[in-house]
Every structure is written in structure tokens, then in C-alpha cells.
Amino acid sequence: MATSATYRRAIRELASFLGCEPTESAVYERRLATPADEYASSLLRATGTEWLLLDDGFPAPDEGEGWQRMGELAGCASAPVLRIERVAEEALAAGERRLDELLERVRDAVTRARAGGWAALKTIAAYRSGLDVGPPDDAAAAEALARGGRRLEAKPLVDAVLHAALEANERAGPLPVQVHCGFGDEDLLLPAARPGLLGSLLERYRATPFVLLHCYPFVREAGWLAHVYANVCFDLSLTIPHVARPAEALREALELAPFSKLMYASDAARTPELYFLAARWWREALAEVLPELLATAEVEEAARAILRENALRLYGLA
Amino acid sequence: MATSATYRRAIRELASFLGCEPTESAVYERRLATPADEYASSLLRATGTEWLLLDDGFPAPDEGEGWQRMGELAGCASAPVLRIERVAEEALAAGERRLDELLERVRDAVTRARAGGWAALKTIAAYRSGLDVGPPDDAAAAEALARGGRRLEAKPLVDAVLHAALEANERAGPLPVQVHCGFGDEDLLLPAARPGLLGSLLERYRATPFVLLHCYPFVREAGWLAHVYANVCFDLSLTIPHVARPAEALREALELAPFSKLMYASDAARTPELYFLAARWWREALAEVLPELLATAEVEEAARAILRENALRLYGLA
Amino acid sequence: MATSATYRRAIRELASFLGCEPTESAVYERRLATPADEYASSLLRATGTEWLLLDDGFPAPDEGEGWQRMGELAGCASAPVLRIERVAEEALAAGERRLDELLERVRDAVTRARAGGWAALKTIAAYRSGLDVGPPDDAAAAEALARGGRRLEAKPLVDAVLHAALEANERAGPLPVQVHCGFGDEDLLLPAARPGLLGSLLERYRATPFVLLHCYPFVREAGWLAHVYANVCFDLSLTIPHVARPAEALREALELAPFSKLMYASDAARTPELYFLAARWWREALAEVLPELLATAEVEEAARAILRENALRLYGLA
Hints:
Three copies of one chain form a homotrimer.
Chain A: H1 5-18, H2 24-33, H3 36-45, E1 51-55, H4 67-74, E2 77-83, H5 84-93, H6 99-111, H7 113-116, E3 120-123, H8 125-128, H9 138-146, H10 155-172, E4 177-181, H11 199-204, E5 210-214, H12 219-228, E6 232-235, H13 239-242, H14 246-253, E7 262-263, H15 272-293, H16 296-314
Parallel strand pairs in A: 1-2, 2-3, 3-4, 4-5, 5-6, 6-7
Helix pairs in contact in A: 1-2, 3-4, 3-15, 5-6, 6-10, 9-10, 14-15, 15-16
């Protein structure tokens, strides 16, 4: 059996929900014995979610069902989030090698996003060339593009695509922009994913609401950004279902940041168990931490803001 | 009402001191109803401060009263701290465009500082070009200066001014040098403000006592520097009145650093409430943390060192 | 008396073991009054160690007794760890100025290491030019070598030596490679020692088991690497006997990392007191933290893995 504290705790938590022995094999058997939709739906509905916003670039579009299907399983409203790099890579896959046409395609998708039902944009620049996004350099970007390849990873090109998207977004009346920050899969250079590197980008696009995702182990740095920039919010996403001390991450998040800037999220994508665990552990952490930091009369206000109202307001879902 | 945990706690703390309801409006009314000097003085005197050392470059000299006035309000001795960048920017404002004359002006101010009553020097290089201060490069500095502007921000120029000040200071018999580290206002690139970047500067000016200010969220890094360099002390300054867990910051500070290297400070500048909150919360944090880390007989020794004696010794005020 | 919390605690811990008053002078007198071997042996044997693995490059080989002698004093098996930079610096001291011959000497030592009884390799690149190890650049390395000097510190040369060692090690059937990460003595630029910088090296040498040493204050970053890379383990080494909250370091280590990836170590080298303190405080920290993170039935499994079994398996000592 896997030996991380969180995995072990997850098995116990799932077993309790499923009504089986707290062992890996019992949980696995229960999963296999339940029809897949029924199993997923029971976990998703136990979260009490009203709105699901899902990245449209992970897993790859042809790998499975998307945001609509997850919303049906959860019995709630849902909407997609437009992954900027997905749009650019579809153009690369189609053989696009002219920079102006590539950027125009990105701008076009972004400009149409709100009308098309997308609730936000998202960038995974942290995975490709890091969050120290430089000013646009079209010559270097064109040169990188000319070298070919279907993966958007050369820094000048990643940065050029991101600037094109952010400019078009501000012109169109900006949607919120989610930014992958901090830990993730192994194809990430962690020091390049620290949210503090974003400074100049957050200043350049002042009219854009940014949402910093995940952030671990740079949670305090994200909290400082949310504290000093009016246009920055953050969540802890996969920190909560993956890190053994969700309450400690929450304490660090709220050391500086106002609770009007922190939002519930799970990064669960297509894994029903993660929806369930994130919802359970976020609420437990809030119940533990908020009374330490606030007066009794303020606790419910803060919990409702973090779990619901901040997101409804930011994404215009209310 | 603002939604940070610290703001909410500050309202309750101030209301308790002012004897009013624990609401923002009640505190604000009390403030407006009390003559300004009386209000400021009551908060400042409640801190039990013996000596106030104030940065002479913030707020700008023409924006209000300075170190003398704050000392009078607090009923204690006071002295100014010479902000190196203020001196250089006064020269820029006066139209100085020759590097040797600019640096001479900085050297001159530093050399006269002790006789003029300044208790220390201070640098805010972290706000301008970062703490990875390179070796002096006069050619690059002269070129940056020739480009004009009243703000000292080009890296070679910021570094050249800092080296000039530090060299003159060591020749004159050094005053302690305060270094802004870690968080602050939004015109700061947080990764460039990490104290660990200072390594070579701390080695180059071995005869100079350095004091690392604020340090959050790099408190542990500052503690390590205070642990390995004989000429490095640190404080937590604005960490204590702004971060929701002052005790946790203190724990991190003392994980490695000797308590003879940590000093009380508030960064309160001209805000009477911050003097009061810092004094109250520092003492609470010390009362909570020191008994966890030390034997009973050592707690008072450590508290007196951090609150008073380390600073008297370092700044030669005893 | 020194004023770090850990020093004060160490005096009390040693006094309790030695049966004397809890004062610095009483501990020191007891040390002087006991024959050196008897004193060292009593502390080493109190740790209950089965195997000692010691860096063969610190202290310098001619400064004292080595791994064999420490093993005799501890009454247990012992083996040396080959410090890659030691081999290269012996070549520099012998006047070697041809890059191919220098690298061949490194490759040769590494290739013979297992047969010669070495249990692992070790690199202190963090102390010399940082953990952002670039791809091999023989021209730049040759140029740096031609400039002379007995200390391996120019980045292209440090990196070239490390690549030569790692390549030879994989060809020979790899020994584990220990990597100094995080804090240490003052001749270290802390931001260059963060384990997250190792990303590309860990990917390039996929067949090599890496062990990240010390890691403070980047313990969470090390835990993430151990979580996502199958070939990465870590310890906390000198974090435990030097940092005032060993339990907190352990909590951070296990936030993400599986307990099969964390290993007991002390970095005690030739200091008998550090062996004793590390052993005592590691066990205390495990007894405090593991029950917080795991079910009762899992605690002993995790403690045995961290204290013993992970290392026996990794180093092939079982």
C-alpha cells in the first residue's frame, strides 16, 4: 500500500463514506462493484457543490467526458475554463508556423470565450517556461515557432501567447484568469512556479482578475499577493486533498490575505474521490482554523465567503 | 469592513484599549473624537518604549512630522535612521548626473551620520533592484545615471550607491545597517527580497553590523543568516502587526537564530495604532513561545534581550 | 553561554545523560574528566545505531579518524561515502590541468566505488556553484580548469565533474547519490541550495537513487520531489539536531512525501554529542508526529521504515 499519510487518510475517509472496511482492497472492491456513474455521482453529490468550473485542457479533450458530463454527475451547474495553451497547441498541431496567425487564433478564442460559455481563462505557463513572464518579444517568439514542434514550451513563445490572450481578454471585458502556481506533476520546475514571480504581469493587466491556483509550498507568497493587489485572488486547490495538513495550509493562506480573496477549489478534474475528499477536508480545515483567527460572529461570514460567495461574485455566477 | 483576520483582531484590540464597542465604526468615532496628539500619545505611551529609531525617508520628509515629534508623543528618546536611497534621490532631484559626485554626496552623508545623530543606516534596495547586490560596476552605473530620472532604480546605480555607502560607513567606524527584506508594499518583487541573496554583501562588509528587517515569509532564511554570520541580526518588524500568527513567525525566527540576534521593532512609522498593536502582540507572542523553547529560568533573559538589550547594545544606546 | 534555544536544550539533554547539573560548565567538566574514547563511545552506543555511513571528505582526510574508527566507537558496522568533489580536488592538488584526465580520474574512482566498499556517492555542489546544474559544457570547464586553483568552484567545472561522476555511476550499476541541500555553513548561498533546482538532473539520471540531505528551510520542496520522482529519497540530517522544532520539520517532510522515502540521518560526522542528540530528538519527533498523521496500527510501520528499513533497502545493507 502507498505510504503517504494523505493516501492512508483518504482510504479511511472513503471507507467511512462507502461503508466498508478501512482497507485499500475493501475500498477498491466497493468501487469495482458499483456502476461507474452511480459511484462517481454519489461522491460528487456528497460535496454539496452548486457550480463546477472545469479546465477544458486536462485531460486532453479526446480522453473522456468533459465539464458537461461532470456537472450532470454532480447534479449541478457547470461551465468550462479555457486553457490558453490548449488553443495554441491546437494551432501548432494544425501546422501553424506564422506567429501573427497563431496569436490571432488565440486572441479570437479568448474574445469569443464569454459568449461561448467559458467562465474563465487558465494558463499553465508555470509548467512550460515559468512564471517570470517577460515583455512580449515577437522576433524571438517567431524564431521559436519556426523551429517547429507541437508542444508550446519555448519561453518567448509561451510568453507571447500569454500576452496575446491577456490583451485580448482585457479588450473584451476581462474574464478571470486562473494561473497554475506551485506544485503539480513532475514536469514542473518548482522554483519557476512561485507566484511571487508574477509581479509585473499582475501590474500590467490591472483590469484582469487573477486567481492563483494550488500555490503550495508558496502559500504565504500567494497570500501576500492577494493582500497587496486588488486584482488577485487565490485558492489552494490540490493542496487540500494532497497535503497531510490542510489546516496548516489554510492558516498560512489567511496570515495576510483577506478572506474575501480566498476560494474553495479541488482540482479534482475527472477523479470522483478527489471531489469528495477536497470538500470534506476543506470544511474540516475551515471549522478548525477560522475560530482560531476570527471572533465567533465572523466565522460563518468567512466560511460562506470562502466556500461560495467569493467565487460566485468573481466568476459572475450569482 | 476589511476581511483580513489581522484587521478584525486589531479592531477588537483597539476597542479594548479605547474602551468602546469592538466595531470599526466605534473605534473610528473614538479616534475622531479625541484630539489627534492626545490620541497618538496615549497609544504610543502604552507601548512602554524607551527609544524610538525612525527611518528618515518614509514618509517623504515634507509629508509630516518626523522622528523628534514621534519621540515627544511617545515620551521617550528618539533618533533618525539615514535612508541611503533618500540621500541619492535628493541628489538626483537636484539634477546630479555625474556618478563620482553622486557617490561622493552619499559618502559624505554617511561619514557625517554618527556625529549628526543618526543611529543607523538603512537600505531599501529590495524595492528597487533586489538583494542580489553585485560588485560595483562604475561604467554601468554612470550609464544608468546619464539616462536621467529622479528615481533610483537601475540596478547598477542602486548597487553602486549602496557600495559607496557601505564602504564609507566601514571607514568611518560603522553604524548598523538596516536592510529591508521580505514583504512590503506592492512595488516589490518578493523573490528579489529574500534575505538569503545577501550572502556576498554580508561577507564583503564583515565589520558592519547588519539588521534584516521584516523578513516574512523568509523568516527561517533570515534566522539562518543570523545563525551563521557574526555580523547579522534581524527583527520581524511589520510581520508582527500584519501577520495573523505572530507567535508562529517568532517560532520560525528562533528555530536557528540565537535570541541575542533578534530584536523587537514595529515599522509603525507615523501610524499610532501600529505602535500599540506591535508592542501588544510582540509581548503576547514572546509570552507564548519562549516557554516552549527555553527552560523557565531562561525565559526572562531572552525576553529582555529581544525587547530591549540587543538593540541598546547594537545601536550603542545604553 | 550561547543563546540559541537548541544549544540550551542540548545542554539539558546531555546533562541528563551524563548525570550532571544542567549547566554548560558541568557538561564541559564531565567531558574533560572522561577519557575521550569512553566519552564518545558512551554517546554513540546510546543511539542504538546498526550501520554508520560517513562522508569521506569531511573533515579533511588528514584531520582525524574516519569511518572505521567511528564504527568501532559506536560498536556497529560502518562504511564510507565517496565525496565526488574530494576526488576532483585531490587531482587539482596533484596539479592536474587537463580536463579529460581530471574527469577520467573521477570516473575511475566512481566505477571502483562499490567494489572498494563505498556505500554511496555524495556531492556538495550546493556549496560551490549551486544546484541548478547545467548540461555538460567541456569547453567552459576546460577553460575554468586552465585558470588553476586547488578548489573546485567554477560552475562549469563543478557541473562537468558531477556529470562525469553520475554517468560513470549509472554505467557501473548506480550507488545512491547524496546531495547536500539547504542550510549549512556560511560559505553557502542559500537560494542556490534549494532542492527544487535539481529537477533536470533528477530526470537525466533516472536510474540513480538520489538522497536529498538536510533540506531546511526547503523541507516541503524536498518532500514534493520525493513525492513525484520515483528515484528521490530525502532525510533531514542536521535539521534535527540544530533546529529548535524537530517535530515541525518532520511534519513538513511528511505533508507530501511517502514515509518510504524519508530516512533518519544525523550529519554528526566526528561530534559524538550530535549523534546522541539527533538519535534522541528524531525518536521524540517521530513519537509526536506519526500518531497525528497515521492510524495507530500504521505508526510503528512508519517509524521502523524511517529509522531503519528505508536505508537498509536503499543502500543495500540488509
